[in-house]
Design goal:
- This protein is an alpha/beta fold.
- Helices cover about 40% and strands about 20% of the residues.
- The strands form 5 sheets. Strands 12, 13, 14, 15, 16, 17, 18, 19 and 22 form a 9-stranded mixed β-sheet that branches. It has an 8-stranded mixed β-sheet with strand order 5-6-7-4-8-9-3-10, with helices on one face.
- Strand 1 and strand 2 form a beta hairpin.
- The radius of gyration is 30 Å and the shape is elongated.
- The N and C termini lie far apart (about 105 Å).
Length: about 625
């Protein structure tokens, strides 16, 4: 096309012209539909799902001059069909497009090629549009010089996986069902083949979800400067409903929404502006539980939920049993997103004296997030999980700092990096310990994983601690404010749960039994609202954690480094700090009153605590007296 309005970057005028031309083109297209039969005029009744897809392309992406569209969808919504119609239009409307249409398998690629050819053949003879010039199993070429490669990514890794898009310059891509691709190298190759400057470039990635795989990583990691994401749920296909006249509505649609269903209906309305009606709810009930046997307390089938999700947060599911409740994770993420933090990058230098935390200039270089500076008269736990400590997939060294109360704990610092060396990680832990031990009367404990590089971290931690406490680095350390590792700092001592005596082994060494206990304890406290996790990254990791028997870990492509560092901190809190905090009634509410109340209020709080302590002591004395009397009576 040679119109001046189509030259250069995308403007509202250009979007309007191209969108109008597309819908005019679609009016002339006929397809073979599973639901509506052969030779069906597709534009006669686009599904809501297809309309949402087109709206995302034209009004969310191109109208803002963004050129990559990622679509997470439910199954059988007609989105792939809609995308294929757009493929043909784009190649014909813009001259010389070099495109690629990539399916997951050779079989699907062959079917897709036939559908593309049928779209072109269905156009009326008098309709002005570039016709098919040549075609074979690998490509389709139009009269205007546009070419579309037909490719298969493959559902299993092969020696040729990395050739996807290699030696090809592409300015149009339509990739479908990425969930089934087993071709990480091919995805990288395809990304490298894209044009970043051609004005009329367009890249569409659309797929259903299936576990935490390459598609999950693509969905989570996106560049909002050139990409948009669109979720299209099961509710967006108009046919997926049982009308009130259908006998199935009587079985599945009479009951009002349960609490769980009502919550999901509200979520869809709030997130996507779509109102689910009772006929649609009847269809969904029939689809996921045709026998009506499931109760609200039973978990849903993860496969069905992944295929027909209500929201994007439900889409990615593992085949195993999800360890954390999705609704609790959603609440935690919603609470965590507005909480601000300071971003830092850790520079280790040649010794702990040279260590420095510098303000991160970009999000991607952030290694440490700080939500709360140290406060006085507080209890903190610093937890360290070195990379590759528990297994070969734990490739991040992670440190967490939590602030402890009688009724829970709050996350205040998180560090994660795959580049830090063991001795540098020990300096990081010492720096955090010293920093949070600086205010007067603070109590700080450090717990560290000893497996793998962890033992070297711990040994170097002790050596450096002695140097800055009693050795030749003492003066410099105090001048720099990192010398507080003496009276108010302790190290975790492991004690077996079935032992009657205090342990004598420093730090933590994970095995299967201990990991299960630590993870179960963190989950219990998280579900019960005792812990405040502020890191969205940590909460995202928690989504990937599944349980299969006694194995609790992240699924494929997932990580659990942050999660397990928090689990160790939680164990140290429960085992070493909580009982004293409970005796002293150091709850979050009491701490807030202590820091904000007037002297009169503080005195009243002190007297109330003293009174509670007095009655607690007297109650224990009475119980001990009764026990002693019972023992004497037996004799």
């Amino acid at each position: 096309m040679s119109e001046r309005a189509l030259d250069g970057a995308w403007s509202p005028k250009k979007v309007a012209i191209v969108e109008k031309a597309f819908y005019s083109f679609a009016q002339n297209v006929r397809v073979n539909s599973k639901e509506r039969g052969g030779n069906y005029p597709v534009a006669k009744h686009f599904y809501t799902s297809q309309k949402r897809f087109f709206h995302a392309v034209f009004h969310k992406a191109l109208a803002t001059d963004r050129h990559t569209v990622k679509v997470l969808k439910s199954r059988q919504l007609g989105v792939t069909t809609a995308s294929e119609i757009l493929d043909v239009f784009w190649l014909g409307f813009f001259d010389g497009i070099q495109g690629a249409l990539i399916y997951d398998s050779n079989t699907h690629a062959a079917s897709g090629r036939r559908r593309i050819e049928n779209v072109l053949k269905s156009l009326p003879d008098n309709y002005r549009f570039p016709r098919l010039l040549s075609h074979n199993r690998d490509s389709i070429t139009l009269e205007n010089g546009s070419n579309l490669l037909i490719m298969s990514a493959g559902v299993r890794q092969t020696n040729s996986s990395g050739v996807l898009g290699r030696s090809e310059g592409l300015n149009y891509i339509h990739a479908t069902e990425i969930r089934s691709w087993n071709n990480e190298e091919g995805i990288k190759s395809l990304q490298s083949s894209k044009s970043d400057f051609f004005d009329n470039r367009l890249y569409i990635w659309e797929s259903t979800a299936s576990g935490f795989n390459d598609w999950y990583e693509m969905w989570e990691n996106y560049d909002d400067l050139d990409e948009i994401r669109e979720f299209i749920g099961w509710w967006a296909k108009d046919d997926q409903r049982w009308k009130r006249s259908n006998p199935r509505f009587t079985k599945y649609g009479i009951d009002p929404p349960s609490d769980e269903e009502a919550k999901r209906i509200r979520a869809v309305k709030e997130l996507y502006g779509f109102e689910i009606d009772q006929e649609q709810l009847a269809w969904y009930r029939w689809f996921v539980d045709p026998a009506r046997e499931r109760t609200d307390d039973e978990p849903e089938d993860s496969y069905l939920l992944s295929d027909q999700p209500w929201t994007e947060s439900e889409a990615f599911q593992h085949s195993g049993s999800s360890f954390y409740r999705s609704d609790r994770l959603q609440q935690a993420v919603a609470a965590a997103i507005p909480v601000g933090y300071k971003s830092y990058r850790f520079w280790p230098g040649n010794s702990i004296i040279d260590c420095d935390f510098q303000q991160a200039q970009y999000i991607r270089e952030t290694e440490l997030k700080l939500w709360e500076e140290p406060a006085g008269e507080c209890v903190y736990i610093v937890s360290g999980d070195p990379a590759f400590g528990r297994d070969e997939n734990s490739d991040n060294s992670c440190a967490e700092v939590i602030r402890c109360f009688a009724d829970g704990w709050d996350q205040v610092v998180e560090f994660a990096s795959s580049l830090i060396e063991p001795h540098h990680f020990s300096w990081l832990l010492l720096s955090l310990v010293s920093y949070y031990a600086t205010p007067p009367q603070n109590d700080v404990m450090m717990i560290c994983e000893l497996n793998g590089p962890g033992e070297e971290v711990w040994r170097h931690y002790k050596t450096t601690r002695d140097l800055i406490r009693d050795g030749y680095l003492r003066t410099q350390a105090r001048q720099m404010g990192i010398g507080n590792v003496a009276g108010n700092v302790s190290s975790y001592v492991y004690t077996r749960s079935d032992s009657a005596h205090f342990g004598n082994s420093y730090q933590w060494k994970t095995n299967t039994q201990l990991k299960v206990q630590a993870m179960e304890s963190l989950r219990n406290n998280f579900h019960n609202g005792l812990v405040s996790i502020r890191s969205v990254d940590a909460l995202s990791e928690m989504k990937t954690i599944v349980r299969e028997g006694d194995k609790i870990a992240a699924g494929r492509k997932g990580r659990d480094d942050r999660n397990f560092a928090l689990a160790m901190a939680n164990r140290a809190w429960e085992e070493r700090k909580r009982s004293k905090l409970v005796r002293e009634n150091r709850t979050r509410a009491a701490d807030k009153v202590r820091r904000t109340a007037s002297p009169v209020d503080r005195l009243a709080l002190f007297n109330r605590n003293m009174l509670q302590d007095f009655f607690s002591v007297r109650q224990r004395q009475r119980q001990q007296a009764r026990i002693a009397a019972m023992q004497r009576s037996r004799w």
